[in-house]
Amino acid sequence: MRFMMMMKADRSYEEGVPPSPALVEEMGKFIEETMRAGVLLDTGGLAPTAMGTKIRAADGKLTVTDGPFTEAKEIIGGFAIVQTRTREEAVELGRRFMQLHTRVLGDAYTGECEIRQMFGPGDVRSPTPLIHQPPTFQETCHADLVRQERARAGVILSALPVLFLLADAVGKFIQPEPVVTASAALGFPPDTLFALGTLEAACALLFAIPRTAVLGAVLLTGYLGGATAVHVVHGSSFAFTIVFGVIVWLGMLLRDDRLLALFPLRHPRAV
């Protein structure tokens, strides 16, 4: 269900007095929160009636009148279009918005917000039920919370391979005896360790940076593929490299919704 929330204008609005910076800041936070939750579809403020024009039809004639419209008893100063499952949810949004004004401007504030349901294709009765119903306000808030928790888990999981690769790269730079011996057993002489450490560090840093994380994951996949081939040639276990690759891409999927959306088994309402 879609509703239009209309804020009634006061005398200061008609005089062109801008709202207080504190009110603008709080309104910006409210708008950002509701838009992120998928509830707020559109919003905007209207200029004073002095900048408006009225067109009236009567007796087969059209009359065009420029503002201001001093005879108007109620003037709309701004609007918001919201989408909720029930009327009660829309009223609760309006209540929160008015409480915001009272909290910032004090008890002396006097204002009015009118909420009206909007008609649309979904409001016309049809023998075929709608397949996709709009999510409720609680569902969108919960989905946003789940998305944040998933991204946080992805960052934590991705930190494990990053830390391991950086530590392993440092070992190849310093080249202590155990590292040199283990590398030689796999066919890597000491003069190649610095290059391998540089490659590991570069892949780890690219994977850690959000803007280049996908590139880092792809490079790590190639690096791990080479490591797996080396273990196969020398007859040693390559289970660690496989698990390592799974951790890399699992963390990547949790961090990036665009990659997660590529999986066809996800429900359309899933986030």
TrEMBL record:
It is found in: Membrane. Residues 1-95 form the YCII-related domain. GO terms for cellular component: membrane. InterPro entries: Dimeric_a/b-barrel, DoxX, YCII. It is a multi-pass membrane protein. It holds the Pfam family YCII. It comes from the Bacteria. The chain crosses the membrane at residues 155-174, 194-220, 232-254. The keyword Membrane applies. Keywords: Membrane, Transmembrane, Transmembrane helix. Belongs to the YciI family. This is DoxX family protein. It comes from Nannocystis pusilla.
